[in-house]
Amino acid sequence: MKANIKYIISATVVGLFTITGCKKDFFNRPPENAIAIDNFYKTDAQVSASTLNLYNSLWFNYVAKPGWAVCEMTGGNGRSYSSDVTDFGNLNGAVTNLNSQNDAAWSSLWTVVAQSNALINLMPSRAGSGVTPAVLNNALGEAHFFRAMAYFHIVRLWGAVPIIENASNFLTNFQVNSNRIEDIYTFMVNDMKFAEANCTAMIRTGAITQGHVSSGSASAMLAKLYLYMQDYPNALKEAQKVINSGEFKLYGVDIAGKTYNDLFKTANNNNEESICQLQWAGGASYGHGNPQQASLAASGIITGTGDGYSVLGPTIDLQNSYEGGDLRLHATIMQAKDVYPEIDAASGGYTVPDNINSQGTDAAIKKYVVGTPADNGGIGAAQSAANNTYLMRYAEVYLIAAEAIVGKNTTSTDAQALAYINAIRKRANLAALTVINRHHSVPNPNYDATYNNAVPTTIIQDDILAERRHEFAIENDYWFDLCRIDGWNGILNNTHPLATQFISQQERGTYAPDRKTVYHTAVTPKSTDFLLPIPINETTADPKLLEPAVPYTFK
């Protein structure tokens, strides 16, 4: 079902999703039998429950395919022959305004905006007299957080789009202009500041949180927004606020006995390192469980639920980019003879077969692949695993702080910046850096004379970008990192010479049958590849979306 701007605006006035029991057809619009807003927000429990869908089914159509198709395939971490996503890896204008996954991403993310707006604009006046003010403010903080989180995805994918703050302002006029990118970032910062001021601190029962975002979650996201804007002082201020609060912890650093791989086990949902996770109810009705394993797992033997389609494979470039001994490789990519005790645990674990070969890569994806229902407390079904999806982890706060300290410098030996990045490297079993280098030339480890000089002998490397790539690979963020390495002006003006150089040096090919020879493939993106085209049904309904963006008038 399409979700054009006209629909998105009107949907927020009709009502909200029910908390449970939604059918697939209702993911993109409120069901007709939705709980009436006027009769719902009468108790603290009802107000708290009103935000639950912001963490779940609204994101399903983004997480199922578009998230990894854009961020991992376009970014060069993954490849696929699947016809509905292959264009994302091909670049050169291959993704058009008719692409189904582009449309699915747009629909899903705008629905998050719509439902957040419904809560923000309608809940305060309809809350019962017995609702505790702190509970109401916390729920509103969560809604502001997710509105900003959805916009953060939207603006990075499509660039200038309309800022829809209150649907009732557009009931008689669905023709709206896009607003400037810089205004959208200001809007997101304002939303996150509201969330920071109104959300409570993280509540833990032992090691596990309640799964909702907190004031610290908003501070972490503020740090990330400021980083994109190259406002390094504020990025560092917010990041250090989070670090000094003690609200979050790093597995394997602050918490002994836990590893990087443990972060992606269902049993560790909402762990101490989680800043924001989507909350999946594995085995529930379609659309409420995590769909990632269905696409990523190398076979049905791993999932035990009839899916495991191996639609995405890890590129040769990603595989070869890891330093020797990096523990994150095993947790992210399955290679022949690797052993995973947590998968098919009842039979002693899963050993990756010698003929593993997802999408011609001689390997397969491991991250977000968690095994059978029996491996996950008996919970799970086809396209419905129970492991959560990270939208942000505490490790990123350390890397944001390091990058903010380095700023626009090409090298840094700052002790604090090194301490932050080396904490992440230590967990990965890597040697500490003594200097942080940015955008420097290094020998190409993938160079081979058999490529007939198609691969350059030297490439551009970046210590912080490389660390982020390996820490967050297959977590749907690398493409966004590439899109911002040309700075804030590059984001505003869609100019990406440095990103183009990074992408053009990637190996996006496949292995030959001998599993040694590489069929070399490289791409050089066009400037138009750095933003997706707005789906055609949207621009047909609202041609103003194709006009130059206009300034936003803030309330």
From TrEMBL:
UniProt keyword terms in alphabetical order: Cell outer membrane, Membrane, Signal
InterPro entries the UniProt entry points to: SusD-like_N (IPR033985), SusD_RagB_dom (IPR012944), TPR-like_helical_dom_sf (IPR011990)
Compartment annotation: Cell outer membrane
Pfam families, per the entry: SusD-like_3, SusD_RagB
Main location: membrane
Residues covered by the SusD-like N-terminal domain: 86-227
Record protein name field: RagB/SusD family nutrient uptake outer membrane protein
Source species, domain of life: Bacteria
Family: Belongs to the SusD family.
Domain RagB/SusD as annotated: residue spans: 273-545
Organism: Mucilaginibacter dorajii
Keyword Nucleotidyltransferase assigned: no
Lineage: Bacteria, Pseudomonadati, Bacteroidota, Sphingobacteriia, Sphingobacteriales
